[in-house]
Amino acid sequence: MAKRVAIVGAGVSGLASIRCCLEEGLEPTCFERSDDLGGLWRFTEHVEEGRASLYKSVVSNSCKEMSCYPDFPFPEDYPNYVPNSLFLEYLKMYADQFNLRKCIQFKTKVCSIKQHPDFAVSGQWDVITLHEGKQQSAVFDAVMVCTGFLTNPNLPLDSFP
Predict the structure, then answer these.
(1) Origin, by domain of life (predicted)?
(2) What is the pLDDT of residues 17-51, one digit of tens each?
């Protein structure tokens, strides 16, 4: 049975994590609190709580050759420094090319991640999520937190010696 991996966030890192898990024969489930993928690169007029925001005219500050996934270059006709709207389109193309959307649960907030009661033996995690007012709990063999570093830090120092 494939090991189950919870991935928090469907931005640049979350998408790459889904793909890597699939390539390794793992079973990824990505939880994305918003209604679409893209993370930071998805501009919204309204700033969403807990999500880093960018302004409408943001352009990547590294060239497209340095900003792309290694085996999935930006389209030739994209400018050297990619505007956020095209960067988002690129991420959607990546997700579609490798069929990653099937692993993403949109509008799903991760409420808590805790060690399973038998963590010392199993190494498993209890993940509690909230989707459309309904709370669900699931057990995963691993967790990847891909929420970026541009929002409020979470330092669970009391959880680690």
Answers:
(1) Eukaryota
(2) 999 999 999 999 999 999 999 988 888 887 777 66
